[in-house]
Amino acid sequence: MAQASGAYLVGDYASALMHAQRAAAAGEPRGATLAGHIELHGLAGAPDEEAAVRWFSRAAERGEPDALIILARLAQAERGGLSAFQARDFLSRAAETGDARAALEFGLYLMDTGDPARAARTLEWLRLAAESGHPPAFTEYAIALDQWVHGPNDPALALPWYERGAEAGDAHAALQAGLIHLAGEVEAADPATGADFVEMAAELGLPAAMGQTALLYFQGTGVAADPARAVSWARQGAQAGDADSQFLLAYALATGEGAPIDRREAYLWVLRAGQPGATSLAGDPARAQLEAALERALDPAVAARVREEAILTATRY
């Protein structure tokens, strides 16, 4: 197996395949998994999904979780001669090996099936993955506890796992932890801690968290009010395409709160906040009101040019 790994690392995939096949023949499941990987991705010739499945199946017979997980994914996509119904068995066998990644994959698979009869088992697999210290499982388990329709919908249970996910660098977990603290609906809630988590999510690059952080600094919620800092975060979120951030930036530029008044730029951002998109504020009355006020304040020719600019740059935001 060492020869197979060494050849693979230097890019000699033909030799890696040969040595991996020999290792597999000697009973080494990692050799079979590596041979399957090389065949699947065509690293030593043309891709051969059926050959890959044969090698992965050989490794799976010896309980190799990586091979079982890959077989499950191929089955879900109905590749290599596999059928979708086989995925559940592959994942179940992988999870039973005690592998945290497999426990997470199996838990997520069960969540996707949406069967309430399996809710307790689903949560158990996700819990095992999280308690094994697998970072991606922290957030997924928290979501299952907090938001999954068949879960307990208990933010107090979810909060410690969101916090662990945040500490592991997951921006979405940080935002959710922050929002739970700020909502004050759990005993451990603390606005300052919530603000810290929301800003952590913003620092990790989550556009929605940038808008939330800007709002906290505008309102002085959990932090000392700081309009200039609020505008800085709003601008970052706006440039990243978050509509709430775009609206907050437009408001600041229209009113001079935290930034010099610039009604032309404010009009541009309020228009962008209303453009179609996942976070669009097209139907928001406050946005529409600000748009109308800025349009009245601008010279009609200037307003027309800004509207044209907003349309021309729509794909950027």
Please explain how this structure is put together:
The radius of gyration is 26 Å and the shape is elongated. The protein has 317 residues and is mainly alpha-helical. It has helices at residues 2-9, 13-25, 29-41, 49-61, 65-76, 86-96, 100-113, 119-131, 135-146, 155-167, 171-183, 191-203, 207-219, 227-239, 243-255, 263-273, 285-297, 300-312. The protein contains 18 helices and no strands. Helix 3 (29-41) runs antiparallel to helix 4 (49-61). It folds into 3 domains: 1-89, Serine Threonine Protein Phosphatase 5, Tetratricopeptide repeat; 118-204; 225-317, no CATH class.
Distance between the termini: 49 Å
What kind of oligomer do you see? Answer: single chain
Query: Rg, please?
Result: 26 Å
Secondary structure category: mainly alpha
Task: Estimate percent helicity.
Answer: over 70%
> Mean pLDDT, as a whole number?
95
Question: Beta fraction of the residues?
Answer: under 5%
Q: List the domain count as a whole number.
A: 3
- Give the beta-strand count: 0
Shape: elongated
Q: What's the helix count?
A: 18
The residue ranges in which pLDDT falls below 50 over 5 or more consecutive positions are none
